[in-house]
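Service request form, structural biology core

Requester: graduate student, group of Dr. S.
Request type: structure prediction, single chain
Budget code: on file
Notes: please return the result as structure tokens.

Sequence provided:
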Amino acid sequence: MSGKTLLLVGAGHAHLGVIDDIRKDGLPCEKVVIVEPRKAMHYSGMVPGWLAGEYRASEAMIPLQPLVEEAGIEWVQASAVGIDASRKTVRLDTGDDIAFDICSIAIGGAGRARRVLGDDPRLLDIRPIDRFVDRWRDLRDGAAPPRRIAVVGGGAGGLELAIGLANAPMPKKTRVTLIAGEGGLLSDHAASVQRKARAELAEQGIRLIESDASFGEEGLCVAGEELKPPELIVAAIGSGAPAWPRESGLAVDGDGFIEVDRHQRSCSHAHIFAVGDVARRTDRRLPHSGVHAVYAGPVLADNLRRALDGRTPTNTYRGRGMDFYLFNTGRGEAILSYGPVALKTRWLRKLKDWLDRRWIDRFTR
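Core staff response, request fulfilled:
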């Protein structure tokens, strides 16, 4: 075992996989430290089901303390605000520095709704997810829960959020409008999947608008469409990059995401790794998605083990060709998207529930 220190910045989905690997097989280093301000991690795949009242909040969360204790990891409950790659230190919001030999970053992406849409007090970004969950709980349980909600974003997240909110257990029915943007609904999926999703939205009474939205003097504006002023606007328009990686001198792309190679190593500093929404692969297009982060975890663990052992990382997460998605309808069914295949059944919802619970159980049993 080397005298090296591995520093995990953030407990994102991929790092949970690394922690699970450490629990089982350990790592060739003296110390593992994780920097994470939250006490429990929300699993994004179950949040739409929680919105629809299918899960308790605790069922879709992974407490961090039992994990790090079992893995023998030192937990620093703080947020990273900078990194000095040459000195091999990470600066925390407490003002402290933590030294490392190998560092891996999985802090998730930053919200970008206000930068894209404009500012409005009704706007609620899905990122960071813990803030979204807390805010929605307060609104739902408040004296005047919102009845008219607009969801902005035509991807998988926007679709499932709109459905989850439309089926939320509220005293009065919630009217939801999904504003998918000019790119349309599920533009990265097959036409057959898009048709199935549109039919589901129509069946549930969720209005679909395939135009861009922005804030103007009269509130939320959608080109060519009349829209009653919503009481809440939920943004699911993808992940933005936090500012500190660029400010710290790491190689980043034009959007500020940390550029990494096929082994998840920083393109400017080989002793730094990054994965998930904070990173951007330079060897292939890999969408920011919780699904990809989950599957990248074991690959990252292998590459970190090799780096700590003085060997060259060789493992690559390649994605899975045709991405496999299961969209929760909030009504006991799920829609399958797998290449050109589109299917909606109850057994697919049971499969999604089993897959989601199995992943949670890895870290909570």
